[in-house]
Amino acid sequence: MKQIVIAITGASGSIYGLRLTEELLRADCRVSLLLTKSGLDVLRYETGLEWEGTTSARKQLMRDYFGGSRKLEHFDEKDLFAPVASGSSAPDAMVVAPCSMGTAGRIAAGMSENLIERAADVVLKERRDLILVPRETPLNQIHLENLLTLSRAGVHILPAMPAFYHRPKKIEELVDFVVGKILDSLGVPHKLFQRWGEDKG
């Protein structure tokens, strides 16, 4: 059973982290879901979900949202004693979706001031898969240089750029395309989108 860390930061597009969590739990993965304060604010603004209160209260709200799954864990962003903060408990992979440019810059600089940054540092030093899903446009030179630094360090840079060849008719189809590409990078089978050249059936 794969152990995956999913982090939702303050960039627009929190739905990507939610859908990814849903699909990973369905694939029988263990998920540690982390959110920054800004991530919680954007989540509330974009989806109406209010995951406030204590860490244990947030964990219960999350588990309720995802159907009561016991494979879902949650730790506060300030909890540097969480298992995922240690290389001896490194997850199999980590995905930051969406990834703000501030988070990308701090990871690129090797900062570990919160649990998301520390977990990313652990994943890199233990040579596990780290996937960042930036959701920003346009990109300035600092953004591009930080992303290049991360790519050179072995990070998968997977921008939230859906395709249109499958002629999507709903926003959910655009979201699922990006989530499907993340699952591909994690090696998790799915049927979230029609692949190029694949018969619709």
Please give the CATH architecture.
3-Layer(aba) Sandwich
Structural class: alpha/beta
Strand tally is: 6
Measured on Cα atoms, how large is the radius of gyration? 16 Å
Order of helices and strands: EHEHHEEHHEHEH
Q: Can you tell me the number of structural domains?
A: 1
Shape: globular
Looking at CATH, the homologous superfamily is Flavin prenyltransferase-like
The CATH top-level class label: Alpha Beta
- Largest sheet data: 6 strands, parallel
**Average pLDDT taken over every residue:** 96
**Largest beta sheet: what is the strand line-up?**
3-2-1-4-5-6
What tags apply to this protein structure?
globular, 7 helices, six-stranded parallel sheet, 41% helix, 6 strands, Rossmann fold, alpha/beta, 201 residues
Break the fold down into its secondary structure elements and pairings.
Blueprint: E1 3-8, H1 14-26, E2 30-35, H2 37-47, H3 55-65, E3 72-74, E4 93-99, H4 101-108, H5 115-125, E5 129-134, H6 141-152, E6 156-157, H7 171-186
Parallel strand pairs: 1-2, 1-4, 2-3, 4-5, 5-6
Helix pairs in contact: 1-7, 4-6
Structure, described:
This protein is α/β, with parallel strands linked by helices and 201 residues long. The protein has a single domain, classed as Flavin prenyltransferase-like (Rossmann fold, 3-Layer(aba) Sandwich), CATH 3.40.50.1950. The protein contains 7 helices and 6 strands. The protein is globular.
Short structural summary:
The protein is α/β, with parallel strands linked by helices. Helices cover 41% and strands 15% of the residues.
